[in-house]
């Protein structure tokens, strides 16, 4: 709409040194002429005089000191005209109900025409009286410019009329309401009327904006209540977004810019702020379950607009992670997939944080805390399964992938591993599996093994990995020893026809193996003795203890179909060699001859007679080995490969192994608690129970229950490492 009208060029102020005398009635005649011209402008008829002439006339009058009179006369003419305008609205039927929108629209158009005419007329009038505007008016700071005087008259006589003002504002609000309901309305009419209200200082703020915001508030309060009931969350948020865009567009198109902040705040409050918790309760889990990326992005963006929005979204985010994570971890039936599911879940939440939550630090940190909370709800098992998962990836024959992919998987595993509290359980199982990979020759790649070690070292410190590193050193050293042993054997008078490879393991580095006394055949015993002589010759004073459980061999065999080679465990070897002496043996006979422990032997026979490659035939058939079963050599054995591995059995973890590994960790924890208590007491000499316990919590790297600590304290008191205070049972003293 029209604001300050264009001004024209700069005008020199003429000063007449000798003022020519004016004809007597010059002032009156000239004003007559000007008055006539103004009247013509106001009635929209053509002016009889040319504008130059009128302009010059104003200049002449000003130079004859009649400016003040001229301004008053002009103001009076304008005022009379504006006052006359109000009459057309007065006659206007005001009895009609506000909602008669047609009537309301006609009224608005009429008011708008009146305003547009007024502006157009004032621009023309001002261009004729420009000299007056630029001299006299400028010098009198109390006087409004001609343009402002026109605005003031229009405000005082037209818009300040209560009936006209109410009807105008009612009409505008009605149009906006209709537009919000989806109808097309005359936006340029709205723009013109609202800029009129803005130009007429304060009418916009005081009379329009307040009512407009109240109506907006009511509308969206009701709409929010209704749509929260009717719509699903994504649709609802979509609608909120649409409303925010529409209102933003309204500000740009026809509202005054100052309305933007309160208007948008009002929409945000009524459609979002009032429903934050309800929106999340109703729909967040679903969006996260189904990984609805764009809806989650929208949720984050909208919630970030409102005070407290991110905070409540954070809480629900954390709850979701803990609840979902708990379902992965606590159900023993899902153990075989636990780690893969944890990795997938972590990938999923990472992706959501990156794409939907703009990598927001708060969301990242809370996600980590939530993971740590749920993964430790079930002690020990996740740690054990993570170790086994790494084992499955580092084993030979793992189809996983390129080195890069394997690296990436190991990195992801480390992130999950970081959340675990009892890392000693992981270490125990990792060590047990690593030993098997190394000793049975099942490791996929030394590089991957070393890479995983350095990750563990970086995460848990050198003490954590020193034994694991020791295992690798033993393997390297054993290689060197074997090179020397081969040379030593070539110098023997009877080198024998068995190729012996020995791994020499340092007791403290490796898992503890229960020695099993089995009956080796004479050739093997003889070779063991040769090696022992050779080794102790180089390292006197060492004690060698043969471990049979992880030994393995390659056997050559002849079948009707031809020659084959078998890669077999030492126990499998002892069983198969018996069939060089006879065709059929019972379970009991085999047990006597080999000396292999009962359950171990049953597993061994099962692998030879009930697996994929059946070198032996069991009678009666069946998948379990029972007392009294008989075994026969299978001469018709067929297989597409020449060398066949049957010793995977060695890699399989038995229930006993699982239990004993876990037991050993607990045993070790007892020692660590004892050592920590003694260390603390030795330093402090005297300490209260609560302080001792909190100090222990600081030092121990695994989760402990207060009850367990109490037991260890009792045990140390019994063993005289410390004693209770005579007067205060909650005080302990160190006993040197």
Automatic annotation (TrEMBL):
InterPro entries cross-referenced by the UniProt entry: Cullin, Cullin-like_AB, Cullin_CS, Cullin_homology, Cullin_homology_sf, Cullin_N, Cullin_neddylation_domain, Cullin_repeat-like_dom_sf
Protein species of origin: Aegotheles bennettii
GO process terms (BP): cellular response to UV; developmental process; DNA repair; proteasome-mediated ubiquitin-dependent protein catabolic process; protein ubiquitination; regulation of protein metabolic process; rhythmic process; ribosome biogenesis
GO molecular function, one term: ubiquitin protein ligase binding
Stored Gene3D superfamilies: Cullin Repeats, Cullin, Chain C, Domain 2, Winged helix-like DNA-binding domain superfamily/Winged helix DNA-binding domain
Protein family: Belongs to the cullin family.
Keyword terms: Biological rhythms, DNA damage, DNA repair, Host-virus interaction, Isopeptide bond, Phosphoprotein, Ubl conjugation, Ubl conjugation pathway
One GO CC annotation: Cul4A-RING E3 ubiquitin ligase complex
Pathway: Protein modification; protein ubiquitination
SMART domains tied to this protein: CULLIN, Cullin_Nedd8
Domain Cullin family profile: 381-609
Name of the protein in question: Cullin-4A
């Amino acid at each position: 709409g029209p604001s300050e009208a264009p001004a024209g060029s700069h005008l020199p102020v003429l000063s007449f040194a000798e003022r020519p005398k004016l004809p007597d009635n010059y002032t009156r005649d000239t004003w007559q002429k000007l008055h006539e011209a103004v009247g013509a402008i106001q009635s929209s008829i053509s002016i009889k005089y040319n504008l130059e002439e009128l302009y010059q006339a104003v200049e002449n009058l000003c130079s004859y000191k009649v400016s003040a009179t001229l301004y008053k006369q002009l103001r009076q003419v304008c005022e009379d005209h504006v006052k006359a305008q109000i009459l057309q609205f007065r006659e206007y039927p005001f009895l009609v109900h506000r909602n008669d929108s047609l009537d309301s629209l006609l009224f608005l158009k009429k008011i708008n025409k009146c305003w547009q005419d007024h502006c157009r007329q004032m621009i023309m009038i001002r261009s004729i009286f420009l000299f007056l505007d630029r001299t006299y008016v400028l010098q009198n700071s109390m006087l409004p410019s001609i343009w402002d005087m026109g605005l003031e008259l229009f405000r005082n006589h037209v818009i300040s009329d209560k009936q006209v003002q109410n009807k105008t504002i009612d009409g505008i609000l009605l149009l906006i309401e209709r537009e919000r309901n989806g109808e097309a309305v005359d936006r340029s009419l709205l723009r013109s009327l609202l800029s009129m209200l803005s130009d007429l200082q304060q009418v916009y703020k005081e009379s329009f904006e307040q009512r407009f915001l109240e109506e907006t508030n009511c509308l969206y309060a009701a709409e929010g209540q209704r749509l929260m009931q009717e719509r699903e969350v994504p649709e609802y948020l979509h609608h909120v977004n649409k409303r925010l865009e529409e209102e933003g567009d309204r500000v740009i198109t026809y509202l005054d810019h100052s309305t933007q902040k309160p208007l948008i705040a009002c929409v945000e409050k009524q459609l979002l702020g009032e429903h934050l918790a309800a929106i999340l309760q109703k729909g967040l889990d679903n969006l996260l379950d189904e990984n609805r990326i764009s809806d989650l992005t929208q949720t984050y963006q909208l919630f970030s607009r409102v005070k407290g929005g991110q905070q409540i979204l954070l809480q629900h985010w954390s709850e979701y992670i803990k609840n979902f994570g708990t379902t992965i971890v606590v159900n023993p039936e899902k153990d075989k997939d636990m780690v893969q599911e944890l990795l997938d879940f972590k990938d999923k939440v990472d992706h959501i944080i990156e794409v939907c939550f703009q990598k927001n630090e708060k969301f990242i940190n809370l996600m980590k805390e939530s993971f740590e909370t749920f993964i430790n709800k079930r002690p020990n098992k996740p740690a054990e399964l993570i170790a086994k998962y790494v084992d499955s990836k580092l084993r030979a024959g793992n189809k996983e992938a390129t080195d890069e992919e394997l690296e990436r998987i190991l990195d992801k595993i480390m992130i999950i591993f970081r959340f675990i509290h009892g890392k000693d359980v992981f270490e125990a199982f990792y060590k047990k599996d690593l030993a098997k990979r190394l000793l049975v020759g099942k490791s996929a790649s030394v590089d991957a093994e070393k890479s995983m070690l350095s990750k563990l070292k970086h995460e848990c410190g050198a003490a954590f990995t020193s034994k694991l590193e020791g295992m690798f050193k033993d393997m390297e050293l054993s290689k060197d020893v074997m090179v020397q042993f081969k040379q030593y054997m070539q110098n023997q008078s009877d080198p024998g026809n068995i190729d012996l490879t020995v791994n020499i393991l340092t007791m403290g580095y490796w898992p503890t193996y229960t020695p099993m006394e089995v009956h080796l055949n004479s050739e093997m015993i003889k070779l063991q003795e040769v090696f022992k002589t050779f080794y102790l010759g180089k390292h006197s004073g060492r004690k060698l203890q043969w471990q049979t459980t992880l030994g393995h061999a390659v056997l050559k065999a002849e079948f009707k179909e031809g020659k084959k080679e078998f890669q077999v465990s030492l126990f499998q070897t002892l069983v198969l060699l018996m069939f060089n002496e006879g065709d059929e043996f019972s379970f009991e006979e085999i047990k006597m001859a080999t000396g292999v422990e009962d359950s171990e032997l049953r597993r061994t026979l099962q692998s030879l007679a009930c697996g994929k490659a059946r070198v032996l035939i069991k009678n009666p058939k069946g998948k379990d080995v029972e007392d009294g079963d008989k075994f026969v050599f299978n001469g018709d054995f067929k297989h597409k490969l020449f060398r066949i591995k049957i010793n995977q059995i060695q890699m399989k973890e038995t229930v006993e192994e699982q239990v004993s590994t876990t037991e050993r960790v607990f045993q070790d924890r007892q020692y660590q608690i004892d050592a920590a208590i003694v260390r603390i007491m030795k330093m402090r000499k005297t300490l209260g129970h609560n302080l001792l316990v909190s100090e222990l919590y600081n030092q121990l790297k695994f989760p402990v229950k207060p009850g367990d600590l109490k037991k260890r304290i009792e045990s140390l008191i019994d063993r005289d490492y410390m004693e209770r205070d005579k007067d205060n049972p909650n005080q302990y003293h160190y006993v040197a």
